[in-house]
Amino acid sequence: MAERLVILSDMWGAKKGLWITSYLGYLQQHFNITFYDCQQLGNIDVKVNSEENVHQAFVDGGIETAVAHLLKKEEEPAHYLCFSVGGAIAWKAALSGLPMKSLYAVSSTRVRSEVKKPDCPIRLLFGDSDVYRPKASWYKEIGVEGELVNGFSHDMYTDEKIIKKVCLDLLNTVTQKSVKTDKQKAI
């Protein structure tokens, strides 16, 4: 039986998310995937669909709305793959009781304001040119590690090199766990 993987989009959701099909193509044969458009989860409806307006709508209550909707929709433990604001939504939902096996967040800069971490394995990936990524001191304070990728900025998750890396990381995490589980059962 395949592991469950919940994917949370960036702030654009499916509107500018053709890149998400690459992730789905790599991962769908290994996971039972549920995809959420963060604009839909957060009831984001702006008159002018600009980056500033969409971002502000998330800050002005959209994140909290998305967290509440995610908590209602997801009751079974799953792995989470999240992009940008999706990582902040998953992080907050996990702190509010969302059953989470692991969190892999790419370019989720809003987590930099968090003071507690979810109780699950966490992997954070940022481009070294992303000016809003958490500072080194935040990682120490919160007790998590992050990974920086040289030569990339915030939207790095749309790049094919990063897509392949993230998918391989996820597959390695799940296959290593299943190998360990099989070995433990043999003992």
TrEMBL record:
InterPro entries in the cross-refs: AB_hydrolase_fold (IPR029058)
Domain of life of the source: Bacteria
Protein name: Alpha/beta hydrolase
